[in-house]
Design goal:
The structure is a homotetramer of 356-residue chains. The longest helix of chain A is centred in the middle third of the chain and has 16 residues. Chain A is built from twelve helices and 16 strands. In chain A, helix 11 crosses helix 12. By secondary structure, the first copy, chain A, is α/β, with parallel strands linked by helices. Chain A folds into two domains: 182 residues, 3-Layer(aba) Sandwich (Rossmann fold), CATH 3.40.50; 161 residues, Dihydrodipicolinate Reductase, domain 2. In chain A, the strands form two sheets. Chain A has an eight-stranded parallel beta sheet with strand order 4-3-2-1-5-6-8-7, sandwiched between helices. Chains B and D meet through loops of B and loops of D.
Chain lengths: 356, 356, 356, 356
């Protein structure tokens, strides 16, 4: 590609800082800058990494400068410098920023906390890449929805899903949010959790076929899903293992090989030297995969909330900028981010292969 | 009843101490004593409560006495004094005690950690009371299985269950077991969890129709179940609420009324003055109850692992001693233990109403 | 006493509900009612216990009634009915209520979260009872300060304290506050913690002689203090054990006897049948008590934040109402609350024995 | 240096794997291999990093090979290939390995869990480097002792320490040890903790002058120390801040700048890209540093148990191999490990500068 895509990141928090680092690693993209309102150690990191810093609120620019940061401009300046904006601010804020982005006709990506209806389409690479090519404004679905979408995707292509029930044990807070609990106890979501309906935004064919319940508890490392999927054509346990092993951004390994729990999994990634011990791959415990002759499939998998949607954000950039080849973008994204290579046959069909 | 049933409790741990207190509250039972091998603060409690203390291992009797406890005999003495033994020792130990109990032809109850095959039948009041009347040796199923059995029981009578999938978020350790973790992280059961198969031991008609997955995490207050039940005849959400509200040992309340999480639930029981904040009732979050026209039912409920099987243990005593009226024993047990009165119509059919 | 002291409790939260129950148990006091603004399960408890309920904010009375509660009046009505008000609302609110209390010339007690300067004196039974007799408005110091005061009190009488350094490992949230963390991590108080200075409000002779540091972490059961006290006259370890064993509201026991940690301690109180497993006694781990010939004393003790200041609140009522005999009130309070009897010689001198 | 020091690492656990990575980064050292008995994901890491793998127990070699690992020899082979062995196996095992190491006259380093008396001397760079030069067998003291030694070191040189009391809030388990608790609760060390006495093994002049108490609780990120130090010559707070800021392997920063707790601190290191988010620097919360005119000094600091002793292990290698210049080794170690540069004046005196 001749010119690199100029990507501006708004909101340098848990997701924003990872998106910035991921964009920086792409051969076809440039970070034009990061915009935020903070002026503490978190912003030090942006400065150490050399990202141009912009003040999201113009009036704060001076304060941020006084705190010792080199602030090169305000949000509007960043928008001008960018082809596309990935807005990673907390839910509710991005729509307030839309007029500014649209004034300069910038492409827009928002995160999964945001409502589906504020964008043209919700996006997940393995669900509906092709449907989103060249759109103006999309939402990359949340970590849990991304995880579910990856798990279901290969079954959507080769089988037919009749029913999904997913029960989530959610981390109550990201590691850095020390003010949040519970310390001891379990907090149920009082009703259907948003995850089932959210999956339908990227897999509309699952309408009326997916339900989710969730509880949050006292851990910070990841979400863990216990899922039951009913497919039309019963499928053997070994085939399932092989299917997911071959799929991109999914790892299938045995707990007894040193992955007995999420903490051991984190330790493995720490030891691997992955930045921030991030695990953008969905991890399935192989021993939990089971199926029966009625078409029921059961498994437990891990979803690292901080990093799972990052590769999908990168894919989304290319998608909005008109790249039609989902295989190529997945390969490029995964290689640049050091994601474990799958044995995926990239000539095979992906769910998002062609517009539906 | 003329003579009280003489009940000996072996193992004065988390379950045993509760069973002893519950037996003591029955108008038709007497605690003949408690047997254990400990000699610390836990045993102080037994002494303060006035339970005759026996040494489970004869050689330890002297040591226990030296530690200041009044030990009135050894295990065999307790067996002689009792009509029935409730063995609450850790899994694996009860079968070693069986010969001693059988030498004196005593009725035997073991707990849910024990294997099903070591007894004549696994027991759960609302599942198969009638099948167990007058048996010699039974197992009261574990806390989680008891909870599931109660939830399913009313549906077994009035409907037909086609399929059950239960996902458990388990407390990793009882509050007193401070040496156990995890502190941060989630530990999946690597395969089908034992709960589904265990339910089948009391509801054989669910064979091939129930599956369970489980994770343990960093909390100590209770287990929380997220369940999907498919019944033959679709049933309205309101009807479900009413059905469970009327059922014994089940509470249905709204989270938003001050039960947003398990810690608030515990606080309520602390405030009620329940001993040890025990919650022998299964607690269903009303807002989570949902159903659809396909016959799917969804809900989340709380299972207090320390106390849930206690009333079933009391029922089991009467069952083995030949009391055939399950309604009467449930009423008697619940009243004596201060369990919330349900609006249950005790003339209606219970699943265990008649032998199957 | 002819007439019972009429005590109104404002704020039916963690402290307020315990104060109400404690007042109710006093032979010389009556609960005139509890005032609050809630209308959920917490208030159900007040109603179940038969406490007259008042609306702290007049406009909420109707709402509370609609929610099914029998609300007999508003805050002003409660004030009229009472001789003394124990205000247990969150810090900052009591001073706003003062004008109303003062309009009716009611005695006032506030809790330890409140600032010292808003009252006439801060109060702690074993520190300065005699100084507070017949005052109008006092503050019962917080749980941690109460704990420290009890530990230091016997040394204040029989020895001379030269220096105190206390390091607190604080529970980050009460059990019921599930929205608060941290889940994993430690939060230091950034500077001197308020505990040292707070002790000086009841022991002015410790001015410039006490310092405190504190961290909060992921547990809910109690605060644990590690303390170093330097006294003028070196004192033998055995003497120390005996001294604290004899002192009221202090327990000294060996960890290895079944009190290895705070969870085992809680279990003991659950087993004892103490309401809400409350531990109004300070618990010292005997093995940690140590001293040297320089006059240094070291120990670790447990402070149950929810219940420690409750007996002191009861004492405070009598103190304000003019009862001068601190021995008698301590004995009466402790007996009524079921606090472990100490071997305290009530003819011996207490620090608050005579005005200083 | 002409020849690189050949370093063999025995025990590839929490410490061993970090020591291996640190040795690998030294310009003057080579990892000859790592020996262990495991054959799971942890060993995969060693293989991915290219460390020659040895079987610590000869009989396990074949099993490890069958599990897919390239095992190049047994422990004795590794010993032959090495000039020095860093034994990082659990306490109690190293002394059993000593005869083998000594058979080949290898220098030996053991870790802080081991007893002091099994080696010639306990070692800590800033305490007694000079005393250990050319010794045969030393112990690098534990994480907490290392942390305390660093904090005290600059005061030992420029002032005189009269008294130290340190209260530790300990992480109950390393992140990977998910089987350990407590989940909720605090576990006191029942007596003086080993830390005080352990400091004396490297700072004998503190004999009778240091005391420590400790509790463990439900967090995994680090130990946090609350310390009171009494020095002969009172020292100003600002001077203290400046003193520690300039000292190697110590960071002093304000909590309010984004380091409010240990989780935020970890996040900073994750963001920095430090391997495994390791923090070999002691971190002092600047706001907690305080002092008075009596010579008392107070502060709270963080000790990352997994990585704090790693640089000291590297120093220890050079020390045993005869390098006398402690400044040079500290500089070399710190630079190679990416430790934050201090403003330390390496011409100034270090405590271990000359034999005492």
């Amino acid at each position: 590609m001749a010119d690199k895509i100029r990507v501006g990141i708004v909101g340098y928090g848990v997701i924003g800082k990872r998106v910035a680092d991921a964009v920086q690693l792409q051969p076809d993209m440039d970070v034009t800058g990061v915009a935020d309102i903070i002026k503490d150690a978190r912003l030090e990191i942006a400065q150490k990494k050399g990202y141009p810093i912009y003040a999201s609120i113009p009036d704060l620019k001076e304060e941020m400068q006084k705190a010792g940061f080199e602030v090169v401009g305000i949000l509007e300046d960043l928008v001008k410098e960018s082809d596309i904006i990935i807005d990673c601010t907390p839910a509710g804020i991005p729509p307030k920023n839309f007029p500014l982005y649209e004034k300069y006709h910038r492409k827009i990506i928002v995160q999964g906390g945001e409502k589906d209806h504020v964008v043209q389409k919700s996006f997940s690479t393995f669900a509906n890449y092709a449907d989103c090519v060249n759109l103006e404004k999309i939402r990359v679905v949340s970590c849990n929805t991304t995880g579910i979408a990856r798990i279901l995707a290969p079954l959507m292509v080769t089988n037919e899903i009749e029913d999904v029930f997913v029960a989530l044990a959610r981390r109550a807070a990201d590691p850095v949010r020390t003010n949040r609990g519970p310390i001891n106890g379990v907090v149920p979501v009082l009703g259907i959790s948003h995850h089932g309906p959210d999956v339908i935004t990227v897999f509309p064919e699952l309408n009326d076929k997916i339900y989710s319940l969730a509880v949050a508890a006292s851990f910070t490392l990841s979400h863990v899903h216990m899922i039951k999927i009913k497919v039309k054509n019963p499928i053997d346990r070994k085939e399932l293992i092989s299917m997911w092993k071959k799929y991109p951004r999914i790892i299938v390994r045995r707990g007894k090989d040193g992955f007995n729990d999420t903490a051991q999994l984190v330790e493995y990634y720490r030891d691997l030297g992955r930045p921030r011990y991030d695990r953008p791959e969905v991890f399935i415990w192989e021993e939990t995969i089971n199926s029966d002759e009625k078409g029921n499939i059961y498994l437990i998998y891990d979803v690292h909330m901080e990093s799972i949607p990052i590769p999908e954000n990168i894919d989304a950039v290319r998608c909005l900028m008109g790249h039609t080849d989902v295989y190529k973008t997945v390969k490029l994204t995964d290689k640049s981010l050091g994601i474990f290579e799958s044995e995926y046959d990239y000539n095979a069909k992906l769910p998002g292969d062609s517009p539906r």
